[in-house]
Amino acid sequence: MGQLGKFVRFCFGLEALSLIAGIPIFLIAAFRLSLKLGWQQASSSLFALTELLALGMLALQIVPAIAWWTLKKGNRHARAWALAASVINVLPLPAVSRSWMIFSGLKHSPAGLISALIGVAGLIAFSRGPVVSEVADAAKPKPQRLPGDGTSKTAERLAGVVAVAWLFFCLHFWRVWGRGQHLRPSDFLVWVAEVQVAVLICIAIHEFGHVLAGWASDMKLRSFQVGPFRWFHRRGKWKFKLLAAMGGVTGMAPMRLTNVRGRSAFFTFGGPVASLVLAGISCIATLTAKGHSWEGSWTLLSIIATIASLDFMVNLIPQKPEAQYSDGARIYQLVTNGPWAQVEQAFSMVSSSLVTSRQPRDYDIDVLRAAGNFLARGDRGMLLRLYICTHYLDTGQVPEAVASLQEAETLYEGVAVQSPAGICALFVFLNALYKRDLAAAELWWQRLEAHRDIDYDAEYWRARASILWLQGQNDEALQAFERGYALALELPAAGAYDYTRSGFDALRDALSSARTPACSVPTPVNA
C-alpha cells in the first residue's frame, strides 16, 4: 500500500498546484455567475447563496492540498486529511468546481472521472495499515548557511515562485496552443508517464552538459547519476547501482590543478547551458509538430521544453534546498573567490590523486587547513580533516595526524557519505595502527559491521588485519593482510591507490614485529 499511498499523495499535490492556478479563474467565474443570477432573478438572497456555495466548493478543494502537506510531513492527522480528501474526490461535485479541471482539459479526460479514481485509490490506501509513515518524506536536516555561500531564504522563495509561475504559464500556453492546432492531448495516465520520461531526459541532458564541459576543461569522469541510475568508477572499474532517489550528479576529477576556479565554474555552467539548448530544441520541435512524423509526441516534447527551461532558470538561482548547492550557488562561490573557492580547490586537489600520480604528501596543507577551518562540521568538514590526517601520515608527522583523526571522528555522527562502511574501515585502520587505541578501533569496527552495504575490498581487509593485530591475534591478522594486499596490488596506478598500498607496507612492518603492541590513547598535539 505504500506505493499506492505515494501515488495518491502525488495526485493530491497536483490538485494543490492546480488549485493555486485555478483560484482566480474559479472566483471570477463564480462572481460572474452570481451576478448574472442576481440580476435575472432580482434576488439578493440568491446572489448571496450562490456566492456561499461557490466559496464552500472552493473550501472543499483545499482539503486535498492540506492532505498532501500533512502526508508529506508525516503529520499525525495525515490519515484523517487523506481520507477526507479521498471522500471529496469521490463526491459528485460539479466539474467546474474541481481543481482537476485544469488538468482534465489539458489531458482529454473528464474531471469527475479523474477525481473519482483518485478518491477510490485514496480510500483503499489509507483506510487500513500504517501507510502514513511510508508515504511521508524522510526527515532532512535544515540547510546550513555559511558566510559566502551566496544562498538565502529570499532566493529560495524566489526560486519557488518562479518555478510555480513558469510551470502554470507553460501548461496554459501549451493547452491553448494545442487546441488551436487541433492536436490531440495525451490521456491522463499517458501524460503522467510522459512527465516521468521527460524528467529523466532533462536530468540526463543537464548532467551530460556538465560532462562535456568537464572534458573540455581537462577533467576525467568519475561518477554519473540520472534519476535512480548511478554509474561510478571505483578501483579502476565502472560499476552500476540503483538508488531510491531522483536527481542528477556528475563527479569529475581534474587532471591538472592550474586555474581550478575558472575550470570548475565552466564545468558547473555546462549543465544549465545544456538545459537551455534542450529547451530550445524541444520548443521548436513542438511548435513545428503539426503535420510531421513527431506530431503524436507533441505533448512529451512540450513537457520537456517546460521542465528544461524551468531547470535552466531555477538552477541558476543561488540556493541550497537540501545537502547540495544549486549550480548558481556554486558559480557564485567560484566567481567571488570566497572561502568556498578554497573548499573547491581542496577537493579538486584530493580528487586529482585518483587520476594522477599525486599522493597525500603532495597536498597543499595550507589549502586543506583553510578549507577545514571554514567547514567546521558536516560531511565535508569530516573529509577535509581525514585528508589532513593522511597528508601528515604520508609526511611522517604522526602526532599531527592523530590530532586531525580525532577531530574527524567527532564530526562523523549525522553526516551522509557515499561509502559509510569505507569511512569506518579507515577509522579502524588509523586507530589501530597509528593511535594504538583498541577501544576506539573496536567501536569503529562495530559501526562498520552495522552497515548493510559492506565492500570487502582492500581497505576492509586492511582494517580487519590491523584490529586483529592490535588484539594480539597475529595469525588471523596475517591472513587478513594477505587477502587485502592481493586486492591492493590490483588497484590502478594512481597516487591515491599508491598511498593505499603504502598503508599495507606500514602494516606489514607492524605484523613482522615479534611482540603485541601496547594499547594506549596518545595525547593530542593541541591538548
Can you give a write-up of this model?
By secondary structure, the protein is mainly α. It has 4 domains: 2-135; 153-333, no CATH class; 355-417; 427-527, no CATH class. It has helices at 2-41, 44-73, 78-90, 101-107, 111-126, 132-135, 153-180, 188-216, 260-287, 298-315, 327-336, 339-351, 365-374, 378-394, 398-410, 420-433, 438-450, 458-470, 474-489, 495-511; strands spanning 219-226, 229-234, 237-242, 248-254. It has a 4-stranded antiparallel beta sheet. Helix 1 packs across helix 5. The radius of gyration is 29 Å and the shape is elongated.
Shape: elongated
The strand count comes to 4
Q: What is the strand content? A: 5-15%
The helix-strand sequence is: HHHHHHHHEEEEHHHHHHHHHHHH
- The number of helical elements comes to 20
Ends apart, CA distance between termini = 55 Å
Strand order of the largest sheet: 3-2-1-4
**How many discrete domains?**
4
**Estimated radius of gyration:** 29 Å
- In percent, how helical is the residue content? 55-70%
The largest sheet is: 4 strands, antiparallel
Poorly predicted runs of 5 or more residues: 101-108, 520-527
Q: How confident overall, as mean pLDDT?
A: 83
Find the structural class using helix and strand composition. mainly alpha
